Write a sequence for this structure.
């Protein structure tokens, strides 16, 4: 049997690559056809939100868990995020409003990594502008950096009214120390009650002043203080708690320390997938 020349082997490999590329493209076309049917069904049912944060989180979790080989997970994650965001846009056009106060480059990287280039990106200087824009446009999303100081103070206090936008996601979902779009960001939207996922629940908590026992008390119920900003009437905290807690747990926990706190739920999000702490598949290869 004649041994193949390197050129012949390379040619066969390229044929395989072309075959796989064509198959992936055909699958995307098939996915588009399913989306068209989905749009028709939703129209007959009277419409509905195209955003499904819980479903998106579960899809990304499965992708991260099964990934293997030399292709960096960052690339796979970004491809799927863009597919999800773009097909959502096809179902119902929307824009993403982003607070650029914390830095143009980092926020743009995050927006493009998670939403691609088809979805319009609208820049704002300050979280207030993002919240107002999302509030005016029922289908739009907002991105606000978690760093309260960089985002213009206790922006989350503007989400306390029942009809105000609410937090629906925290990005990046796949958490890792060297993430290429690693800026911690909250995503806000208006109508999300049907699709909300409540692994982590966020609260705006107003108290008279800081007490040293606050972090330990909130930590004891599995929560954490994400933001801490003083205003003219006291202190406004952004507090995350496990979604499984009974409704009055946070108030009961804070009462012995600060008395009666003003607590308002301002959204929720899926528990993030921490890639750095997950066991890797035996066939996983770190990119060089």
């Amino acid at each position: 049997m004649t041994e193949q020349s390197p050129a012949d082997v390379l040619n066969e490999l390229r044929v395989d690559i072309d075959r796989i590329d064509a198959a992936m493209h055909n699958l995307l076309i098939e996915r588009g056809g399913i989306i068209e049917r989905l749009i028709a069904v939703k129209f007959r049912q009277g419409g509905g939100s195209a955003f499904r944060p819980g479903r998106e989180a579960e899809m990304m979790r499965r992708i991260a868990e099964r990934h293997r080989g030399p292709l960096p997970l960052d690339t796979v994650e970004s491809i799927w995020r863009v597919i999800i965001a773009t097909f959502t846009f096809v179902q119902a056009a929307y824009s993403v409003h982003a607070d650029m106060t914390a830095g143009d480059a980092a926020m743009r990287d995050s927006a493009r990594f998670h939403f691609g280039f088809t979805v319009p990106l609208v820049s704002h200087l300050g979280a207030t502008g993002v919240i107002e824009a999302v509030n005016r446009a029922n289908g739009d999303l907002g991105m606000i950096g978690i760093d309260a100081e960089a985002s213009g103070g206790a922006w989350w206090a503007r989400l306390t009214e029942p009809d105000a936008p609410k937090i629906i996601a925290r990005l990046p979902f796949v958490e890792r120390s060297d993430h290429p779009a690693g800026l911690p960001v909250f995503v806000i939207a208006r109508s999300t009650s049907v699709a909300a996922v409540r692994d982590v629940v966020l609260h705006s908590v107003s108290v008279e002043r800081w007490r040293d026992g606050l972090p330990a008390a909130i930590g004891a119920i599995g929560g954490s203080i994400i933001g801490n900003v003083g205003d003219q009437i006291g202190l406004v905290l952004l507090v995350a708690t496990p979604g499984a807690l009974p409704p009055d747990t946070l108030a009961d926990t804070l009462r012995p320390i600060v008395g009666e706190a003003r607590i308002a739920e301002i959204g929720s999000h899926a528990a993030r997938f921490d890639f750095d702490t997950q066991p890797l598949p035996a066939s996983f290869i770190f990119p060089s």
